Amino acid sequence: MTLRANDIDRAWDKIGMVITNTGDKHARFYEAGKLILTTMRSFGSRKLDGIIQHKIRQQMKLNERQFADLIKCPLKRDGYVEILKGKGLITD
Amino acid sequence: MSAAQWIKTDQKLSVTNSLSAIVSLFSQGELEFLVSTDANVERNFSAASSLVERKTVFIQDLGDARLKLRESLAVLIENWSENITACSFDIGEFAFANDEVAAVDEFKALVVDLYFLLKADQEILGPLPLKQWNFLKSIIEEK
Q: If contacts are CB pairs under 8 Å, which of residues 38-67 in chain A contact chain B?
């Protein structure tokens, strides 16, 4: 499946990733007042195929199934927070 | 992935629809991705790209008047079938473009952006960005 920048932006918006300006090069994910991770977002209008999807997924710390769920909608912010907690990236 | 074609960089080797060959390559460390055979996984999301060439370059300047590299930074350049990627495992950052120079330039811009982003949030960094910030601080100084 070919993704476009809009697909990623929509998915990020759903889980509450922060993009302050349209020209931002990174999207940021905060939880409980802490910066948990950043992902590159300077895609332009290019198609995001193959290896690019893989690298975005790696930066988001998601496996293939979780990334597919994120794009297709079942994965929401709460689920994403649980995934990151499970990986030790969100600590209480 | 129903028709993957993997190309080794040292000798051209194509593998098409051969699970045993993929398993063999994986065990030899030739494959970078774990190929899932779970039928429930949307295979369209797998990384079925062909790696044509891979090399490491060392950059000595980030191209930003505000920052200076204390030491050269290793950047892995990978020429995939549809894009050139530039990435650093130390920073966890990557960029892509249609050509190598543009990919490296974009990578540098991303590192500069990440530096100032993490600097601004340095009091509230979680474990992962804290590691990135500590590494960036160790190799970058402000002019």
A: 38, 40, 42, 49-55, 57, 59, 64-65, 67
